[in-house]
Design brief:
Blueprint: E1 4-8, H1 12-29, H2 39-49, E2 53-60, E3 69-75, E4 80-87, H3 96-108, E5 111-117, H4 121-129, E6 133-138, E7 141-146, H5 155-165
Parallel strand pairs: 4-5
Antiparallel strand pairs: 1-2, 2-3, 3-4, 5-7, 6-7
Length: about 170
């Protein structure tokens, strides 16, 4: 990734950095209040999902010691992965979101079901540019689908599964 380096989250200190960035980004991730986990709760949460999830920390190439963003891919079914990203406030507006979304789409290994706040127009525009498709809207959230790297002959079947996942 040009200008940005990805590192898989495997150590407790990385989970803690993901939590810190998440807390900064929480207001943009949902219209509902998301949990404010303590460091211990975050470690327990991570231990409960890491067998069916992937997460990455990102650092600028010129500052490889500074982890400024994360992405999380949670397996929701055999065919669907759901992503989340967060970028530390002082690093927003540098083009990192595009690179992170491109990275997690390739890392997902299949179709993706996501959502974005309907008032978060910048991330929605970027998602549409990168191939996300809107499937509906619920409670202030735009529900999204990305085919990822699934085979063409399975796209219709998986799209129906995405609709079920989103409650349609």
């Amino acid at each position: 990734m040009d200008g940005l380096r990805a590192e898989s989250i495997v150590h407790p200190w990385q989970v803690e950095r993901m939590r810190q960035i998440y807390l900064e980004c929480r207001p943009w991730l949902s219209v509902q209040d998301l949990p404010d986990r303590s460091e211990v709760e975050q470690q327990e949460w991570w231990n409960s999902i890491k067998g069916h999830s992937k997460a990455f920390l990102y650092s600028p190439s010129e500052e490889p010691w500074k982890f400024v963003a994360f992405s999380l891919l949670r397996k929701k079914s055999a065919n669907i992965v759901s992503p989340m990203i967060g970028i530390a406030e002082e690093y927003r507006g540098k083009g990192y979101a595009r690179k992170i979304i491109q990275h997690y789409i390739s890392a997902a290994g299949g179709a993706l079901a996501g959502s974005a706040r309907s008032d978060h127009t910048q991330i929605l525009r970027l998602n549409y540019e990168l191939g996300w498709q809107e499937v509906g809207e619920k409670d202030g959230m735009i529900l999204l689908y990305h085919p990822g790297c699934i085979e063409n002959h399975r796209q219709e079947e998986i799209y129906r599964e995405i609709l079920r996942y989103h409650g349609y």
